[in-house]
Amino acid sequence: MYSRILGTGGYLPEQVRTNADLERMVETSDEWIIERTGIKERRIASEQETAAYMGTEAAKKALESARLQPADLDAVICATTSSQYAFPSCACEIAGALGLAGVPAFDVAAACSGFSYAYAIAHAMIMSGQAQKILVVGADRISHACNPQDRTTIILFGDGAGAAIVGASDEQGTLAVHLSSDAKRAPLLTLPHPVRGRPSSESDYLYMKGNEVFKQAVVILAGLVNQTLEKAGMSDADLDFLVPHQANLRIITATARKLHLDMSRVIVTLDKQGNTSSASVPLALDEGIRSGRIQRGHVLLLESFGGGFTWGSALIRY
Ligand code: UT7
User: Fold this and answer.
1) 213 Cα nearest atom in ligand 1
2) In CATH, what is the architecture of 174-317?
3) CB-count exposure of residue 117 (10 Å: 0-12, 13-18, 19+)
4) Ligand 1: does its nearest atom lie under 6 Å from the Cβ of 306?
5) Which of 33, 152, 209, 310 for a ligand 1 pocket mutation test, highest count of atoms within 8 Å of Cβ?
6) Is the CB of 63 under 6 A from ligand 1?
7) Which of 101, 107, 252, 308 has its CA 20 to 30 A from that of 217?
8) The domains spanning 2-169 and 174-317 adopt the same CATH topology
9) Cα dist. 268→147, 179, 197, 245, 248 in Å?
10) pLDDT digits over 6-29, tens only?
11) Active-site positions?
């Protein structure tokens, strides 16, 4: 028995925040943002577009693409660090909204690496025979946790949700997963949640020492992609697509270079979405599939890096 992806879906809020909008909010420029990050616009969730709401919408699309009903699911796992409630979990809210009861539902907190963690747990549950079909969601509204006056963070983050249905299969979809963390540099990227998602004082906002995090991300991701390929006994020549976490185009190109991958074989969504934290990898995966670039049989390397620090990957034959 193996695990593989049966379907994917995504949800993005309607409201667009462009670089021109940011020029009116903080001292920055379209040119600076594009040159340093690659981001042109991002989506901003309304009050009603909670992590659970966005996650549910992404889940419905993933179910549709897998030709499944909510009742077919055996478990719901949601990666998020910006859900409205500590409890009920975002996964329980999503399960409830889908009319699903009697199955395990729980959240995973690993910041921007959340989807990689949730995917690896789903894979393990399937391999151990605990479940046959699992809804794995990444849903975040981190833009609301950024200080609107802090030009170093407000330009980066957008909101959204992505979802995948991971199912048992006699075809090997998941070839390798790798998860890790190291709290040594945790203070470089933090988000307190005294009032989950509703900052009321300066110290409640997301904090990031961007250039330090950048350097760490490049080094850690270079090691991660090699370790993941090694685990599966594969090399970069076997890869069809890199599906990276969408934090910064310069980090993505550095990882692609390390893998000797042309940028035409890298899924990039951050120009239109910014960094959507745990939603970024499943949204990029969904975009790659829906655009027709990713086809059944392609070998994909999903990777992510985030606060904690945490990092994770999945090598997949789609
Ligand atoms: O997803 C979780 C992991 N997160 C990441 O991987 C993000 C990693 N970090 C980054 O993407 C980049 O470090 C940033 C985009 C956040 C910043 O880019 P950078 O090239 O590392 O810039 P910097 O922080 O070294 O700042 C360079 C200059 C500074 O000015 P001085 O001190 O040289 O005069 C900043 O104050 O750019 C200034 N600056 C800005 N200027 C215009 C910082 N933010 C802005 C801004 N607009 N928005």
Assistant:
1) 8
2) 3-Layer(aba) Sandwich (3.40)
3) buried
4) yes
5) 152
6) no
7) 107
8) yes
9) 26, 22, 27, 9, 10
10) 999 999 999 999 999 999 999 999
11) 112, 245, 275
